[in-house]
Amino acid sequence: MLLKVYKSRVWLMLLMLLPFVGSAQAQVSPWDFTENPTSAVYAITTSVVFDGVDALAPGDWVGAFYMNDGVLECAGAAEWIGTANTAVVAFGNDTLEAPNKVGFSEGEMVHWKLYYSATGTETEVLSTPEFFWTNGAMGEVTSFYVEETGCEQNLSFVAGWNWISFNVLPEETDLNSVLGVEGFTEGDFIQTVGGTADYFDGFGWYGATLNNIDPDKMYQIKLAAGKELTVVGNCVDVADPIAMASGWTWIGYKPQNIAEINLALGSLTPTGGDFIQTVGGTADYFDGFGWYGATLSEMEPGKGYQVKLANADELIYPEVDQNQKASSPEATVLIANSGKENPNWPTPPAFPFYQTIKFSVLLNGVPIETPGSRLSAW
Fold first, then answer.
1. CA dist., res. 199 & res. 220, Å (int)
2. Distance, first Cα to last Cα, the chain
3. Measuring CA to CA, which residue among 277, 278, 280 is closest to residue 347?
C-alpha cells in the first residue's frame, strides 16, 4: 500500500510538471538507482544552458547524485529528449534500508552527471541554481556548468625536516616547476623512496634519481629555513590507485579535504597489526574495529604518510566532502571514555626516520590499562 501511495504522489507531481516533461523514457538508465517513498522533482527545459560542457543530444541522460561515503551514487535519472522538456525524479533515502544509504538525506546537496550515449562517457557538472534536496520539492535547472579545474595547494615548511605530499600539480611536474627556485638555500634536500635531489644556488633543484613529483608518493624535504609554498595547477585524480607493497610504502594524500582515517583507507584490506605513521601521529589496524590511533585519527592534505602492511594491496582514495572530515564514532567514543586530555608536552621536531616501540607498561607491578594514557620518550 505504501508503494502504491508513493507512486501516486510521484505521478501527481509529474502531472503538475507536464509543461516541463517530454515523451516517456524509452531507454534504460546508464545508472542504477532505487525508487523510494520520498522524492523531489527537478525540471530541465529545452532552453537550459550548457556552459563549458557539451550539450546533451537526444538519447543522452541526466542524473541526480548524492554522496555516500565519498562516492557519488545515483538517486534518479531521465533521458534527454531534446525536443521537449525533461524532469528528473530524485529519490530520498529509505531509512528502512539502514545502515545502507540509498538516496538523498534532507538538506543534502544535489550533484549532477550528464551521460553521452554516443561515446558512453559521463561528466560531473554543477547546476544553476544549486539545489539542496527536500522531500516534495520542485525546481527548475537553468544551466549546467563545469567547475573551474584550477586548484591551489598551500604548504608551510619548517626549518629542518618536513613530511609532505602533493594533491595539486602544474602541467610540468619537474622539481623546479613544482617547488620553484626562490627562497631555498644551497644544500636544501628532498628525498623519497628510490630518489634524492639537492638545491643549488643559481641553478635550482637537481637529482640524478629524483626529477619529478609523483602525487602517489610522500616526500621528505629538509630546509635551512622555514618557507611558505603555493602550488597552482590541477587537482590530482584521487581515483588513481596507489600500489601498496608488503612492508613499508611512502604514500601521498590526494583528496582536497581532511578525511577520517577509516574513510581515507577504506579501499584497503588490512590485517591486525598493520600500521601508519606521520610526523606526530601513529595508528594501528585492529581486526573487527578498524584503524585507531590516539595521535592519528584523520589524514590531511599536504602531509606524507608511511604505511606498513602485511600484504600487498591497492589504495584508492574516495572523493571527500568537507563534511566528512569528522573522526569515526568508534574512535570518538574511545577517546571520550578515557576522560584524558593530551598532556601539554612540546611538539617534537620532525626527523626522516622514526622507531615506534610498543610497550606493556606497569606501575608498581600493575599494568596500566586505562584508555587514553600516554607514554613519551625524552
1. 14
2. 69
3. 280
Question: Between the CA atoms of 111, 26, 2 and 112, what dihedral angle is there, to the nearest 10 degrees?
Answer: 0
Cα 348 off chain centre by:
29
d(CA 46, CA 87): 11
Q: Which three cell numbers stand for residue 2?
A: 505504501
Cell of 23: 515523451
Q: Which residue has the cell 590516539?
A: 294
Q: What is the pTM of this model?
A: 0.56
pLDDT at 375: 63
Q: What is the mean pLDDT of the chain?
A: 85
- Mean pLDDT for 130-142 is 96
Place of cell 598551500: 154
Residue 304 has pLDDT above 80, yes or no: yes
**What is the predicted pLDDT for the residue at 366?**
73
- Beta-carbon contacts of residue 236 (< 8 Å; ≥ 6 apart): 166, 167, 168, 169, 215, 254
Beta carbons of 79 and 86 less than 8 angstroms apart: yes
pLDDT in tens, 310-340: 999 999 999 987 655 544 434 333 333 444 5
Q: Would you say 78 and 120 are in contact if contact means Cβ atoms under 8 Å apart?
A: no
- C-alpha angle 369/372/346, rounded to 5°? 125
User: Strand, helix or coil at 147?
Assistant: coil
Cα angle 267, 268, 269; round to 5: 125
Q: Cα(239)–Cα(241) distance, rounded to whole angstroms?
A: 6
Locate 54 and state its grid cell: 557539451
Q: Label residue 10 left, alpha or beta by phi (over 0 means left) and psi (-120 to 50 means alpha).
A: alpha
Classify each residue of 64-84 as buried b or exposed e, where b means 16 or more C-beta atoms within 10 Å of its C-beta: bbbbbebebbbbbbbbbbeee
Alpha helices (runs of H) in the chain, residue ranges in sequence order? 2-16, 175-179, 261-264, 329-338
Pairing outcome for strands 150-157 and 138-145: unpaired
What lies within 8 Å, CB to CB, of 135 at 6+ separation is: 38, 39, 40, 92, 106
Average pLDDT over residues 245-264: 97
Reply yes or no on whether the pLDDT at 354 is more than 60.
no
More confident residue, 229 or 27: 229
